[in-house]
Each structure stands twice: as C-alpha cells, then as structure tokens.
Amino acid sequence: MTDRASRAAAQWAVARPDLDLLAMETLGRLHEASILVTRERQAPLYARHGLQHGEFDVLATLRRAPSPDGLTPTALYEATMMSSGGMTARLDRLQKSGLIERTPHPSDRRASLVRLTAKGFDLIDTLMPLHMAESQAMLADLSRDEQAALSALLARLIGALEA
Fold it and tell me: How far apart are CA 102 and CA 117, in angstroms?
C-alpha cells in the first residue's frame, strides 16, 4: 500500500528523474498525517460532544492555563495558533454554549478575560482522557521509542522552521 506522497514521488521520478524528491515526499506525508489526525480521527470525537477542533483547543488551553482567572483572547489565539477573528467566533460559540465566560480584565479596561464555566470544565475533563486514548490509538503502530524519536524530530523541524 502506498500513500499519496509516494505515488506523487513515483510520478515525479518518471517525469523528472533529475529531482531529489525526498523532502517533497516527507513533507507530503507530514501534511497528509496532519489531515488524517485532525479531520478523520479527532473531528468525529469532538463532534460527538458538540465541538469543533478549534473549540476543543480553546477549552484545553483554558483548562491547562496556570491562572484560574482565565486568559485574554490575545493569549488564547497566540497559544492556539489561530487568527484573532477566528478566535472571536469560537469564543462567541463557546459562550453561547455555556462553556466559557468573559469577564472584564481587572487592570486593563479595554481587555477581557476568558475562563471556563463549570460546564466547560466538566466537558474538557471528560474529553481529555478520550482525546488521549484516541491519540495513543493513532500512534499504536509505533513503539514508545519511535514515538519519542518522531516527536523529537518534529520539534527540531518546527524549531528550524520558526527560526
């Protein structure tokens, strides 16, 4: 069985045998894996609980935040790598669902703080074990050492790309 990246590389090897295709094939696999993880495996889990992936990410970020007072929307969108407009839409939906609340910032009247409600806290605490089980299932074909090596390589790649 071949994946899309290997099929594309095989076609390019015929069309342009002079090209070194390893980087393209590797990044193609990384992209396809990301799509399969997010859309095919995680999205159905979140949908069963009335959430989209980005909303889960917001709830998880708030749950692990060190301050019980919450985070500013800016801190949230920086932590979750989404745009400020996308964050506003997610926060509106989560607030309508009763999962978060917005309160005035105590020292900056132009800002607000976002924090989990009891309902949001309970939901993310219910979802995290399910999320972790699904994550472990997705990586079950790799040993712990292979998972650690993959994680370290991806961290190195991300660090190099961000530099």
Answer: 10
Q: Environment class of residue 114 by beta-carbon count within 10 Å: exposed (0-12), middle (13-18) or buried (19+)?
A: buried
d(CA 47, CA 68): 27
65-76 pLDDT, tens digit per residue, is 988 889 998 899
Q: CATH for 49-162?
A: 1.10.10.10
Work out the average pLDDT over 68-90. Answer: 86
Rounded Cα distance, 79 and 75, in Å: 6
Mean local confidence (pLDDT), 13-17? 96
C-alpha triplet 159, 8, 16: angle, nearest 5°: 100
* Under 8 Å between Cβ of 36 and 77: no
Task: Report helix angle 53-64 to 118-138, nearest 10.
Answer: 110
| Amino acid at position 98, single letter | G
Q: What is the pTM of this model?
A: 0.86
